[in-house]
Amino acid sequence: MRRLSILGVSLAVLLASVAAPAMPARAQTPALTTPEVDYCTGAPDVFLGWWFNDACRGHDECLAPLAGIADLPGRLACDRAFLADLLQAPHVLNGGACEDDGVCGRIAFLYFVVVRFASVLTDASLRG
Is 22 inside a domain boundary? Predict the structure, then answer.
């Protein structure tokens, strides 16, 4: 199942990167572009300059109490909070929220869809 979510996010990122305009080359602060902990497992924590790492961390922390428990409503609440956090993700160079950029909003929604699908599969596998 983890491979499926990694594959889905990878495909979404690939499709989004093809449709996204090229960003101008600028020096980026390594601390902002390379998080100390990779919370977005199998997906970029920083994509096209958008900082998704905090949203992924929040999602991981939300799901931690549900580990090994079949709780679809709980997972849905965590996934919805994840989408809201993704849409508020800042750009490491330009500031602003992800929801204000059309490309970033689509990427955030793709992250959400892949995570939501994985949550449903996880819940189903826990139910037996």
Answer: no
In a domain, residue 9? The reply is yes
* β-bridge partners, 51: 46
Q: What mean pLDDT is predicted for residues 29-54?
A: 81
Q: Which domain holds residue 106?
A: 2-15+44-127
| Domain annotation covers residue 104 | yes
The answer to whether residues 86 and 40 touch, using CB atoms and an 8 Å cutoff, is no
Percent of the chain topping pLDDT 70: 74
Q: Would the pTM of this model clear 0.70, i.e. be above it?
A: yes
Instruction: Tell me the one-letter amino acid at 28.
Output: Q
Q: What are residue 97's DSSP bridge partners?
A: 90
Burial of 127 per CB tally in 10 Å (0-12, 13-18, 19+)? exposed
SS3 66: helix
Number of compact structural domains in the chain: 1
For the cut 50, the answer to whether the pLDDT of residue 14 exceeds it is no
